[in-house]
Write the structure tokens for this entry.
Amino acid sequence: MSLQEPRIGGVSRRKLLAGSLGVGGALALGGGLAGCGGGSGSGSKTITLGSSASDAVPKKATAAIMADFGKKNGYTVKINTVDHNTFQEQINNYLQGRPDDVMTWFAGYRMRFFAKKGLLGDISDVWSQVGGQFSDAMKKASTGEDGKQYFIPLDNYAWAIFYRKSVFQQHGYQIPKTWDQYVALSKQMQKDNLPVAFADQDGWPAFGTFDYLNMRINGYQFHIDLMGGKQAWDGPKVAKVFDTWKQILPYYQTGALGRTWQEAAQALLQKKAGMYLLGGFVAQQFTNKADLDDLDFFPFPEIDSTVGTDAVEAPIDGYMMAKRPKNEDGAKKLLTYLSSAAAEENYLKIDSSNIAVNKGASTASYNPLQKKQQELIAAAKSISQFLDRDADPTFASTVAIPSFQEFLKNPNNIASTLKKMEQQKKSIYSE
Amino acid sequence: MVSTTAEADGRKAVRSTARSKVRRWSRRDTIVVGFMLGIPTILNLAFVWLPALTSVGLSLTSWDGIGLDQIKWVGLKNYTEIFTIYPPFWPALEHNVLWLVFFVLIPTPIGLLLAVMLDRQIRGSRFYQGAIYLPVVLSLAIVGFIWQLIYSNDQGILNEFLKGVGLNPVNWLGDSHVNLWAVLVAASWRHVGYMMILYLAGLKGVDPSLKEAAAIDGANEWQTFVRVVFPSLRPVNIVVVVITVIESLRAFDLVYIINGGFNGLELLSALVTQNIIGEASRIGYGSAIAVIMMLISTVFIVIYVTRIMKEETQ
Amino acid sequence: MSAPTVAAPRRAGHRAGKTAGQPKKKPIRPARIALHAFLILVTVSFLFPLLLAFYTSFRTHGDTDLHGYFSLPEALTLDNYVNAFVNGNMPLYFGNTILITIPAIVLILGLSSMVAFGLARFRLPGRKVLLVVFVAGNLLPPQIMLTPLYRIYNLIPLPEWMSDSQVLYDSYWGVIAIHVAFQIGFCTFVLTNYMEVLPKELTESALVDGAGAWRQFTSIIMPLCRPPLAALATLEFTWIYNDFLWALVLMSSGDKRPITSALNNLKGEFFVDNNLLAAGSLIIALPTMIVYFALQKQFISGLTLGANKG
């Protein structure tokens, strides 16, 4: 409801007025909303959007493109924003209840899971019109197990190791190409009183480190199979990942489990940390231009030369349609617009931490960081989505989070932690 | 029809007020009272008891929460798995017990002590009471927000103070050896006032003549308290225990706000929500943990309810 | 302690009896000073978190970041409040809170008075069982009801004018309904106790005059129940206002949530700025604090009412 559009503003004022009238307001509110609640007819000019873009910058960018679509097509898009953690936790109930016509979500396994359950609307007809604007990889990421499309990608971003150029210059650091060099660099930074930024209070940020280590040590295919429940967590391959991870734990900021990624990013910003493995959204914390220009990244180094570095973690964000939207015509029109280069350009004008996925989107407005991310992703042979998007969501949230946190606390108990992970994996993936 | 019976009944009632063994209520009254009792009862049964009992049934199934046809009967499998291969369960149970023990040992006696002090009609009593009660009206969610200003790792006042005096900062919310205690202190901040209110009310009900008698017998204040005052607070103590148990079991908002109930802040309530409102829910698992919570609270609910019923018969 | 404190007459003699025979001006004893010193210490430490939030909320983020908390402010500003209120869209959430809290309180008090009246004034068979059902239900952990409630809510249709979700789920009505169902238990218990000690003669005479049950309830019993109703209203307001769980689980629209459940929503906006967080927290805490200061007596007697039998 943060749209700057007068009509929407009017509704929210009306709601407020209704609210201030107390009990009587309930009736007024019902009446007030009935006019714009999206009738069941297809001729309605209102589309509802469930959005998890609750952080200030993405929220503003989302509002801007929805307003742009509305202006061009004569629709009103009513945005219902829920903070992303809650949105993700409740998606299951949300999709089964009365979801909005269109909602934000992620590509890959997490979309396929709900498509398979019959909770999403098939938008293959939209794809047949706009498909030419996307790469095959994008189409694959938007396709369900039944070969139909359920997802429109908007943008993606790369996970990489971010650092401040000025810090590297000041200390004469070199970009590490191999794991040994990376460990040596971490050691050197510790000597210079610059820890490696790391935060895992919310449980998911540590996934990024695991994903990269696993892909660099055991290769992309093993990683995807492990996520799909087809490989063992308590085997020697995964154990090796954690052993490798152990080597760099001493160089992390202490107290990672009590720090949010935003706080860790602040440490990087304030030059209190040397480098930080995170997604491109780290740039959101670099609000002033001089700092942003000083921000750079390098890809996750090579660990095994036979495996190489051609796998990149680049989660795709985008939109899906409800199974039975109140306004199907409008929803499909909106999704068509969202797949266009113009929509992506408008979005990235405001939220400049991501990369467009439409082949025709102009990169003229990209800052160097975005350009570099785009090159990294374009050169990648295989793209992973992130642990909690590639694996069963129940497993990710109720098993992987506490297990990884346990590892960070007691790195030496990892064998028993992995054994329990495997037992629970069997229980979850068999259900 | 109805009105004539009512009238007749009314007349009968008037005639027979002298005799007590006569029906005094008309059929209309019976219907009215039936509705007065019926509607709220149905509401309570439909929204509280029916869901609670349904959960017991669901705890014996495996279900991802999508489509009723997906429900599979698994018997006690969820329970055996929770007890054996679900790592957060035992820590969560331990934390709930710790929560309870801590609440009984720390905020409750402090609340009692403050109540005894403030019961003496000293000057400024109202001001003291007002300040100590204040946290009671705050939601636990807000308590969580406000205490983040104190505990936050890189920006909290506590670590700033520690660094200022040359000590190492502590990871108050992220270190799983510390964070539960930190949360307990924040929760106690609210609980002390609650306990104090209850004890103050209890102390008002202590018969002053008993205290005077004890004083005449030459008992000092401490002896008077132990021999006379505390025993007569027994009813309040029972209520305090029940409230504390229920509060300890229900504790949720605070840890949910801080880190969702992971990493040292595992609580049964948080495990239930993690499993039930997660992205692809394990309804059976979550329900089983909820049933375990219900069983624990049932013990105390029974104690409480039997006490109430005893009084009813007195 | 056999009657609720609200009904209990203040023991005026209590204090008088204590001070009688003592001189008016007591000498100041060291014990007194120690007691006051201790109480002041406790009071200050209890107010500290709120005072800290208060102080932080008037400073800029850059100022606190640079100089820390233990410093004099460069400048005091209301910006954090304006930001939290406007960017956090707080008027909307406060409106939602009103829409949920007020009807819920009215319904809770109305329905529980009726049950209490039925239980207290009639020797009905099975009345004890009913009371147990209500009281025990109120003590159950809410988590036990989550999943089935959510399913039931999605099966109960509502007309479009009542909720744009067209079911009980994700509607104000649904959240109101669970608050009502859950809290009836506590209020019924308190009001039953209260009504039981009202003298029988009150309604006996009305009966002779031919007043029916409803008339007795509305014109005799309810006016007498003003004190506990006021206390319960205050208490329930605080509880429902402070509820975090129900609206979180039973609503999927962020813009329908009451202010307490919207906190998590606002967290996204308050990314790492503690000053904004402090201001937002205080704004949200304000209504309950106002109610508390205005109706302290009702609030406290409400809390003690339920605990006061025996």
Remarks:
- Chain C touches chain B through 106 residues (CB under 8 Å).
- Residues 29 and 238 of chain C are 40 Å apart (CA to CA).
- The first helix of chain C runs from residue 12 to 19.
- The radius of gyration of chain C is 25 Å.
